[in-house]
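[Target chain]
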Amino acid sequence: MKNIVKKIDFKDKKTVKKLIALIVALVVVITAIITINVNKSHIQADLLYAIMPDTVDLTENNGFPFLLYKQKNEDFDFKEDIDEPMNAIQFYYYDENDEKVIVNGADTIKYNGEDYGSPYIAFMINSTDTFNQIKKVISVIFVIICILIVFGIIFLWFKSWAKRQDKEKEKKYAHKNNKQNKKSNRK
């Protein structure tokens, strides 16, 4: 590590700019990692909420007699209720009397004495299209980043190779250039 630092030319402005850009990128990555780890449950709940559809029509396939909606649980505290992160999102439906019935994410739907299961399952099944689109976009971005990295490495290698070639040519033909300079000075 010391040898690498010794070889860096801090007087070269391009090198200093590259080092500053690298340091800024590292600080951003470290800050993002810390932020995500500190607010992990909160961020996961927000991402899950964004991916889920606003409503799920359970009457189409399963014969359920209601539509299911989602909403954020305003009373949920991520610091106190860390054991129940599923309750950060609430679900609701309207019963036969058009009254709003709220179901916490960890609970199951009960309607007319029947248990219809977890609302999370219904929403996650209907979120598969969104997941597939996100997966495709991430795959394309990953491929583009890999291609850019490969081209960047090839470019840096070529630049380094060209500098080495120039130095070798300079060493090889330095004596000829010196002889020509001496001849032109004599005239």
Q: What stands out?
A: The chain is about 60% helix and 15% strand. The mean pLDDT is 77.
